[in-house]
């Protein structure tokens, strides 16, 4: 055992948190193995969370597919998986707290309006919200809320001022100074979905006692926002391990749009899961995305 006698050291808890919007592919398998092995090698727990908060893109058959694919790869998880769609009241309570603190505001803008805004500044993830709805007076806000669809955005400047300076720890980058302001007034509840990824993931990682977040480096920038939300909601800050993304022979990130086969495709093609998992553990990408042989 790694922590045999010191009960003050919390056991490691990691998670894999896919969105059931398609079948899992090799990039998911690589990420799941990283999170699973990180915990298991330290005698810890590995959790599965289904991030099914986007009603437009979630497909029920992919939820079953995720469990099937992980089991096929030999990755077992602890406890029943939680589904974000079953936790909407918990996210609503977190949003209410931010509303009570005056840190969010309703936003009525459409994507097209934001894109058309000549004044839209740019951040690491593209165009930043130009702040159109931030300055609405209380009466105008109330009148529009009564009749118009709206999401909720964080008032980033106020939130950053309230939280003060923040840092987080990343295994590769070391101590990182949180710079959420670079992402502007991000959406915390969407017009077309009850809650945003940022808020749900932050609330759930804390609720599930995740000590170490092992996920792809494509989510590194999101961590700045998650760190801020942790501070505003009084939640613990886990350690972060942003792993490199698996790339194909062409150096491109693996994703369905680049033609990476799903794990289900590989299984159907006769792939032995043990060989595939071993290759991924060594950081080897199956050549041409074909079947991995010994
Ligand atoms: N649900 C997210 C995705 O599938 C991952 C969330 C996370 O690991 O923080 O991209």
Instruction: Tell me which CATH architecture of the domain at 1-86 and 244-294 applies here.
Output: 3-Layer(aba) Sandwich
Number of helices: 10
The unique ligands bound to this protein are: glutamic acid
Q: How many β-strand runs? A: 12
Mean pLDDT: 90
Biggest sheet descriptor: 3 strands, parallel
* Principal-axes shape call: globular
Helix content: 25-40%
Lateral arrangement of strands in the main beta sheet: 1-2-3
What is the CATH level 1 assignment of the domain at 1-86 and 244-294?
Alpha Beta
CATH superfamily of the domain at 1-86 and 244-294: HUPs
Q: What's the N-to-C terminus distance?
A: 32 Å
| Order of secondary-structure elements | EHEHEHEHEEHEHEEEHEHEHH
Uncertain residue ranges: 1-7
Topology-level CATH name of the domain at 1-86 and 244-294: Rossmann fold
SS class: alpha/beta
Task: Please state roughly what percent of the residues sit in beta strands, choosing from under 5%, 5-15%, 15-25%, 25-35%, 35-45% or over 45%.
Answer: 15-25%
Rg for CA atoms: 21 Å
